[in-house]
């Protein structure tokens, strides 16, 4: 199998991993999915370019009607809804990782800091999106309320998922996966 075909297979498998993990819901006070874990794993294992491509494939599948989003939902309406900005923010995580590794090299500290910056950017973009869409569909909402609903309950779980994805990627040996 040539390298281009192998890269396409990895991207497709990673998009499937993100979909499957979006269906896994951890019931807590504020339920969360394993979707961000899969995004982190995908980017750590495939790198920024192919990881971002896998997220894009995942989002495209959901937009055209394949039920890959949380709770087996799909459609452009989900992506344009209140929480769609966080899913679009997954692309930003990949792009930030890609840029950081390209500029500073693939060092552990570069990978981790770029993922943290990507996650913060995802939170910022998703929260702004949430506030705009919520104001149009329900009522204006303050930043503190939006953060309390959409970010604060997810920070610790997301950091745990990031750490677990990093350890898993190192254990699998990201060098075995084509870059």
Structure, described:
The chain is an all-alpha fold and 179 residues long. It has a single domain (3-176), classed as Arp2/3 complex 21 kDa subunit ARPC3, CATH 1.10.1760. The chain has seven helices and two strands; from the N terminus they run H-E-E-H-H-H-H-H-H. The protein has helices at residues 3-23, 35-63, 76-79, 84-104, 108-137, 143-150, 152-172, and strands spanning 25-26, 32-33. The protein has a two-stranded antiparallel sheet. A hairpin with a 5-residue loop joins strand 1 (25-26) and strand 2. Helix 2 packs across helix 7 (152-172), helix 4 runs antiparallel to helix 5 and helix 5 runs antiparallel to helix 7 (152-172). The chain starts with a helix and ends in a 7-residue tail after the last helix. The mean pLDDT is 94.
* Poorly predicted runs: none
CATH class: Mainly Alpha
Strand content bin: under 5%
Radius of gyration: 16 Å
The tally of strands reads 2
CATH architecture: Orthogonal Bundle
| Tertiary shape | globular
Distance between the termini: 15 Å
Topology as H/E string? HEEHHHHHH
């Amino acid at each position: 199998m040539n390298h281009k075909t192998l890269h396409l297979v990895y991207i497709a498998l990673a998009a499937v991993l993100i979909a499957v993990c979006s269906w896994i819901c951890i019931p807590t006070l504020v339920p969360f999915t394993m979707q961000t874990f899969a995004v982190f794993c995908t980017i750590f294992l495939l790198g920024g370019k192919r990881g971002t491509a896998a997220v894009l494939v995942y989002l495209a599948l959901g937009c055209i009607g394949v039920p890959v989003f949380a709770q087996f939902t799909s459609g452009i309406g989900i992506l344009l809804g209140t929480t769609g900005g966080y899913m679009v923010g997954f692309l930003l995580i990949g792009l930030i990782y890609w840029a950081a590794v390209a500029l500073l090299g693939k060092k552990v500290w570069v990978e981790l800091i770029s993922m943290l910056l990507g996650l913060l950017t995802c939170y910022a973009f998703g929260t702004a999106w949430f506030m705009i869409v919520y104001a149009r569909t329900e009522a204006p909402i303050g930043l503190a309320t939006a953060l309390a609903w959409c970010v604060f309950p997810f920070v610790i779980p997301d950091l745990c998922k990031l750490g677990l994805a990093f350890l898993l990627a190192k254990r699998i040996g990201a060098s075995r996966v084509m870059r």
